[in-house]
């Protein structure tokens, strides 16, 4: 079975910047690559309704399952100022392919599981900044936008702990299967921005957590998929292949071709 993985489509932002239909190109690629299923690692758009519509369109037009996890952008409340983050999270969770609902059996002992995950500041430079400073989400005139557009009602560490507890239980339960773990946030330190860096010494704090890498390795996960940071990179570590496969913003692309970028960002796993 061929499973495709891509994250950070940012359909709304990219359409404005590039006037191109990313979804159309992705649909063509799923066909060309003869994918049996697709997994999207979050940040489809800044509006959960748009995100759900995109998932529906892929499933409808290609007739394949389109699994996904939420990204922080999908949870933003710009279009829904009266909703808190849990309400938006639950709106997305109503879709049966959202991995927040539980693991998915892909056949041949392969299991796909995960959720957005969150950040606990452990990737930030602790020698330069204190917990209180990271908790501010503001530095040198820049604000990490989750501060403005998300409200979990508890602090970031507690959100992270919640997802960690869930991941621990799920991975333990599926220990004897071949597991593909998908988070939106970064699950390996090598996917953070190299430091020392003028601003990323600080902003790496919001990319993910060191806890995920440890857990994934200890549970001998086969593939750990993520997005969030707009890099495309693979890291082999212990028995796990960590894959960060973001399409990212069009102004960050290396080529002017949407097709080339989607093709490059789309990872295809051959599961046997
Ligand atoms: Fe993100």
From TrEMBL:
Pfam families: Metallophos. Signal peptide: none annotated. Residues 1-230 form the Calcineurin-like phosphoesterase domain. It comes from the Bacteria. InterPro entries: Calcineurin-like_PHP (IPR004843), Metallo-depent_PP-like (IPR029052), Pantetheine_PDE (IPR052963), Phosphoesterase_putative (IPR022302). This is Metallophosphoesterase.
């Amino acid at each position: 079975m061929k499973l495709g993985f891509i994250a950070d489509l940012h359909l709304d932002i990219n359409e404005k910047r590039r006037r191109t239909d990313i979804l159309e190109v992705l649909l063509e690629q799923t066909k060309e690559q003869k994918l049996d299923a697709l997994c999207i690692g979050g940040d489809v758009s800044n509006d959960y309704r748009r995100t759900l519509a995109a998932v529906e369109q892929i499933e409808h037009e290609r007739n394949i399952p389109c699994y996904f996890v939420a990204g922080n952008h999908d949870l933003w409340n710009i279009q829904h100022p009266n909703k808190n983050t849990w309400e938006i999270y639950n709106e997305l969770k109503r879709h049966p392919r959202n991995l927040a609902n539980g693991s998915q059996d892909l056949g041949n002992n392969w299991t796909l599981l995960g959720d957005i995950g969150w950040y606990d500041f452990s990737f930030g430079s602790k020698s330069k900044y204190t917990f209180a400073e990271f908790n501010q989400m503001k530095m040198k005139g820049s604000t990490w936008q989750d501060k403005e557009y998300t409200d979990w009602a508890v602090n970031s560490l507690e959100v992270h702990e919640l997802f960690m507890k869930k991941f621990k239980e799920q991975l333990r339960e599926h220990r004897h299967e071949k597991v593909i773990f998908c988070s939106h946030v970064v699950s390996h330190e090598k996917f953070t921005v190299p430091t020392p860096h003028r601003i990323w010494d600080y902003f790496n704090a919001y990319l993910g957590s060191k806890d995920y890498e440890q857990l994934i390795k200890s549970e001998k996960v086969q593939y750990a998929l993520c997005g969030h940071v707009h890099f495309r990179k693979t890291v082999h570590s212990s028995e796990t292949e960590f894959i960060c496969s973001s399409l990212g913003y069009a102004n960050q692309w290396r080529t002017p071709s949407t097709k080339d970028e989607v093709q490059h960002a789309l990872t295809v796993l051959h599961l046997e």
